[in-house]
User: Which sequence fits this backbone?
């Protein structure tokens, strides 16, 4: 078994119009910039994207939105230092937004990966974000029912990966990666370093390979924050 | 004529032939574990054990056991390169979340609806379920390996399970000591049978009706011990 | 008389005095982050950031940032010995599961019922919630630090929130620029106020009734910049 | 902050009559033998114990049951090579059993730790173990509602721990430990090696210290399987 894909272009070639795509990262930390840019090159339309944020500046997720690929965004915090790309489209009614509390977003994604179709959470009870959702009481306290979230694809950045798809992550870049690999039918992962099976100690594996379908090596990946500080744009 | 039947090793061998290279597989404790020995040359499955290991290998030599390195049957195993450890919640996320390609389980009874009974023979004794009820949900394909009939000759492939259910409508293929049978649209579809056995003889050992779509292959396996 | 008030640094300092040694604490992004600077000598809290770090420290020097090592406000941080990384599901298990001792948040409005409004000023613009709605549930103690009134002098401590709610009945203590107020049984209980301020003057700046149980302490803080 | 407790006896001294106690381990792997034996020495009555199994032979959990401390067991598989201790008491009606499918048991414990009061699972639908539980349909498929599981205490065996309670586990001994630390009000952990904060790399932490309240060092801990092969009994 070898899940390695030779190029970024080939790795994202399976993502077509109308697909749902989870994209890892919290702000720039863990954002798979190279995979996103390869996806922009392919240029699918009408994507539903799941990410914690809505992009920053004119690279990565912001560039994907700017390229007109995204019809709907499911996220918790569509603000950033430079949110102009999303903000303009949103206020013009050109992109749909589903706003989800951050912890609920994470738990919905995990539930999608874990075969849990719905769960109850105290989060958002009594607020506008709970409107239309079933409410139930447990032990005298009210909770909101939330549904799992799954996607056709995930684009994730990891640190070390082996050819079976076992992954580790760098520092807090771990954030949504392990969950999105679980919740997507096809998890496409860029790793800074690709190793043979056995190159990661079994105790150190954060995402077991069963959750990963495609892996592509991108040494020295770009950091969104660095690109934005340099005023970069893609393409 | 009906005295000819496959050994457990031969049933396991037959089930192993349907496992693709790179498949993620969970083998139930006991008899199903035997399937791992018969992977076709050139194919390598990755075995999952619900207590928290992916890609484990065969038992170590006696005396070389590490009792923190065991499978779901609590037998000592070894690791292959590329293995991983994880907690029980993650392990059953793999199971329930549809990440396993195949689960192969034993059975007391399988119904033509795909219902499976394999955890309890009734209200006597101490009940114990383990991961069986989880495994029947989520794996992309749930197969059963079993003798075609019970020790006292009663059918195990039935119209309706009489024993407590493990899962509803979950089994899609059954490998028995006499035949390979798919479950499709609430029917037993006979795919392969021993060449020495007539359809009537096989039907006589089966509680529910066996259907065919015209072609029934011969169930051929190599000579194997076990 | 009402022109005297605490600076943000002084409000943060006061809030920091109530954090026990060894407490697990989440500080909301922006103003609440300032609380970390004023831990009393001999006490060390462990700070949680919802993007997946426990026990982070202050910002690194400019030029030494690692952009995979950021807090919820996306500012670069450093690590202390004993820190840990984890994914978002685990991070919010800490939040929702009641494992944090204290969460300290900002507010647009706090109601005497403990309702909090701090995520949206209405239907204009792009809505953004982040982890605010999660943080108000689960932490053993949810406290707010805030100016006592808005920039145009309107009360922020109200009978009933008019802005969209972040959470219902979740706040138990409010540290303002003028007072320390507990929320108990649907009432604002005044615990401390600036010595220079009368109860009547404070009440005039507060929409809901301020209650006391007889003793009101003096809100004393050191001279601090910020 | 230092969560270290000097002795096993002191570590379990907080566990009183009628307490609920989660005990880590899958069979002998990860079983905190020394903590269990210290608990037997203290001798609380009427405990509700959560464990995957019901003990084996006459040490560890089996010995705790044999000592008459356990009123109720919540587990998935109360069978073992030598299950006589539990079996006799169960058949005599002297111990209550709540049988839970293994994956549901794990998920209920995680839910308890994660503040999720209830969730839906396909597991056990249509079986005797779903009797009396609410059923709901999502996307045309039926699911069973399960409740969270929490406990007053957890007894867990880890490999390396620091004084803040950060933990790693040895091989497959990880099993229920990380979940039970999350779901218990007071997680009491025995570690083979105690280190200072910083002694575990932040990427390698499996259980973050926030989930651990007490930690006690037990170098060279006993393995249940070895004890049973030697015919050991406790006390």
Assistant:
């Amino acid at each position: 078994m070898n899940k390695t894909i030779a190029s970024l272009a080939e790795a994202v070639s399976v993502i077509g119009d109308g697909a749902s795509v989870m994209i890892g990262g919290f702000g720039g930390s863990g954002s798979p910039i190279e995979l996103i840019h390869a996806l922009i090159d392919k240029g699918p339309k009408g994507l539903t994207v799941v990410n914690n944020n809505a992009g920053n500046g004119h690279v990565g997720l912001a560039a994907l939105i700017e390229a007109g690929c995204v019809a709907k965004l499911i996220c918790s915090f569509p603000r950033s230092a430079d949110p102009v790309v999303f903000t303009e489209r949103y206020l013009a009614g050109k992109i749909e937004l589903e706003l989800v509390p951050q912890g609920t977003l994470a738990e919905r994604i995990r539930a999608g990966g874990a075969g849990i179709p719905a769960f109850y959470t105290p989060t958002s009870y009594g607020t506008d974000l709970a409107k239309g959702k079933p409410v139930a009481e447990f032990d005298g306290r009210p909770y909101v029912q939330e549904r799992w979230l799954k996607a056709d694809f995930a684009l994730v950045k990891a640190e070390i990966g082996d050819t079976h798809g076992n992954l580790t992550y760098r520092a807090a870049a771990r954030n949504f990666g392990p969950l999105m690999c679980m919740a997507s039918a096809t998890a496409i992962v860029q790793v800074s370093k690709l190793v043979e099976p056995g190159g990661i100690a079994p105790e150190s594996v954060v995402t077991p390979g069963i959750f990963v379908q495609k892996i592509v090596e991108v040494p020295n990946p770009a950091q969104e924050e660095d690109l934005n500080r340099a005023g970069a744009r893609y393409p | 004529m009906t005295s000819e039947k496959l050994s457990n090793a031969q049933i396991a061998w037959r089930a192993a032939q349907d496992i693709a290279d790179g498949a993620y597989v969970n083998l139930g404790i006991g008899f199903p574990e035997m399937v791992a020995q018969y992977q076709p040359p050139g194919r390598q499955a990755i075995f999952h054990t619900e207590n928290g290991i992916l890609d484990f290998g065969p038992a170590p030599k006696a005396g070389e056991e590490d009792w923190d390195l065991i499978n779901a049957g609590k037998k000592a195993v070894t690791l292959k390169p590329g293995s991983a450890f994880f907690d029980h919640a993650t392990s059953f996320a793999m199971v329930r979340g549809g990440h396993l390609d195949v689960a192969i389980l034993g059975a007391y009874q399988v119904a033509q609806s795909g219902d499976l009974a394999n955890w309890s023979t009734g209200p006597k004794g101490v009940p114990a379920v383990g991961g069986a009820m989880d495994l029947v949900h989520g794996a992309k394909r749930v197969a059963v390996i079993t003798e075609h009939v019970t020790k006292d000759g009663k059918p195990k492939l039935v119209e309706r399970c009489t024993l407590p259910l493990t899962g509803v409508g979950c089994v899609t293929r059954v490998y028995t000591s006499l035949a390979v049978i798919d479950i499709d649209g609430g029917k037993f579809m006979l795919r392969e049978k021993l060449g020495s056995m007539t359809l009537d003889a096989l039907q006589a050992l089966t509680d529910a009706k066996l259907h065919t779509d015209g072609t029934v292959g011969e169930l051929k396996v190599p000579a194997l011990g076990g």
